[in-house]
């Protein structure tokens, strides 16, 4: 079997039936799998999805403190900008374009570390990266960890139910996982540690990184605006952490066919270019599926790409040594031929 067919932990309800069709579990089966995989007392190898949601739960009190005690026009504006733009753009810069697709390279580990910690630490790199490789290989097909055809819950709880790596990889396959993650700078378990913890990252390293990141950013926000700003932005990060889990369901048109001619050119999946995610996070998702390794996915003039602006800025100052940009290929292979086809059809329409 190809590596990406089994690198993720198979859910109890499976990916596909004997005929190769997607298994669409009901809400009961999805929640049963979800809580089973969060049970660290049942199996210590469940620690990473538990850890991922623990961080979300720890952000919730900040959100309520913000709403109850610190809600004002300026804290609301700060929370909106931080959750909608800063957190979203950072996810595109770090998890998506660098960690998964290697769309650009840093000149040294210092700039990589700075970029990794530009925002409040929420999503474990391992859960995102490995599963996203599978997503691109199997978009909207059985085995896609956040297949929109599976429904909203199938996607929303995918980080627990579908995205963790398998717990029974042999040493050779674990080395392949390490190869996919090594450039991120996240310290890898040894194979013996993997057999104990069921993950690429070690829980001690992950917990230490999380606590130091949160302590640093709470201190910075407190010095700028006191507890009001710190609680507002930590609460905003919690809001984003929940909301971002809806993106792939929406970004793949809720399992429907909603692609528009002249806007969405990747026709091998249901991905669509959405205005809001594009503007606030550089997530022009259909463009991204056309050229996954591109450091820019906002190809057209109106497609604002804040993630690309950050990468380009780092390149200008020498922090990024190289990047891949497929804008010219997009116009050459897709947009220009589309425009030419429209022009060539006009005489026919007029004659009719």
UniProtKB/TrEMBL annotation:
One of its GO terms (cellular component) is membrane. One of its GO terms (molecular function) is oxidoreductase activity, acting on paired donors, with oxidation of a pair of donors resulting in the reduction of molecular oxygen to two molecules of water. The chain crosses the membrane at residues 47-70, 76-94, 216-242. GO terms for biological process: fatty acid biosynthetic process. It comes from the Bacteria. Its main location: membrane. Residues 72-316 form the Fatty acid desaturase domain. It is a multi-pass membrane protein. Pfam families: FA_desaturase (PF00487). InterPro entries: Acyl-CoA_DS, FA_desaturase_dom. The keyword ATP-binding does not apply. Keywords: Fatty acid biosynthesis, Fatty acid metabolism, Iron, Lipid biosynthesis, Lipid metabolism, Membrane, Oxidoreductase, Transmembrane, Transmembrane helix. Signal peptide: none annotated. It is found in: Membrane. Belongs to the fatty acid desaturase type 2 family. PANTHER family: ACYL-COA DESATURASE (PTHR11351), DESATURASE 1, ISOFORM A-RELATED (PTHR11351:SF31). This is Fatty acid desaturase. It comes from Pedobacter antarcticus 4BY.
């Amino acid at each position: 079997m190809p590596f990406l067919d089994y690198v993720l932990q198979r859910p109890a309800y499976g990916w596909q039936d004997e005929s190769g069709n997607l298994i669409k579990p009901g809400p009961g089966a999805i929640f049963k799998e979800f809580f089973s995989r969060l049970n660290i007392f049942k199996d210590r190898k469940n620690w990473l999805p538990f850890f991922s949601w623990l961080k979300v739960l720890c952000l919730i009190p900040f959100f309520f403190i913000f709403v109850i005690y610190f809600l004002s026009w300026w804290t609301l504006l700060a929370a909106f900008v931080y959750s909608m733009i800063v957190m979203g753009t950072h996810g595109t810069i770090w998890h998506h374009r660098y960690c998964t697709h290697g769309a650009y390279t840093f000149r040294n580990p210092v700039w990589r570390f700075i970029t990794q910690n530009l925002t409040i630490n929420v999503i474990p790199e391992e859960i995102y990266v490995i599963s996203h490789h599978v997503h691109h290989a199997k978009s909207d097909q059985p085995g896609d960890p956040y297949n929109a055809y599976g429904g909203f819950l199938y996607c929303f709880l995918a980080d627990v139910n579908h995205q963790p790596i398998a717990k029974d990889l042999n040493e050779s396959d674990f080395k392949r996982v390490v190869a996919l993650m090594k450039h991120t700078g996240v310290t890898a378990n040894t194979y013996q540690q993997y057999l104990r913890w069921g993950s690429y990252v070690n829980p001690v390293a992950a917990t230490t990184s999380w606590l130091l990141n949160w302590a640093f950013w709470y201190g910075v926000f407190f010095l700028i605006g006191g507890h009001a700003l710190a609680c507002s932005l930590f609460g905003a990060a919690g809001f984003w952490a929940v909301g971002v889990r809806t993106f792939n369901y929406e970004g793949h048109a809720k399992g429907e066919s909603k692609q528009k001619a002249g806007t969405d050119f990747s026709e091998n999946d249901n991905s669509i270019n959405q205005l809001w995610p594009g503007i606030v996070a550089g997530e022009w998702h259909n463009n991204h599926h056309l050229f996954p390794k591109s450091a820019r996915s906002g190809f057209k003039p109106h497609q604002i790409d804040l993630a690309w602006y950050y990468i380009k800025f780092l390149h200008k100052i020498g922090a990024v040594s190289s990047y891949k940009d497929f804008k010219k290929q997009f116009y050459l292979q897709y947009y220009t031929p589309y425009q030419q086809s429209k022009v060539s059809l006009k005489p026919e329409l007029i004659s009719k």
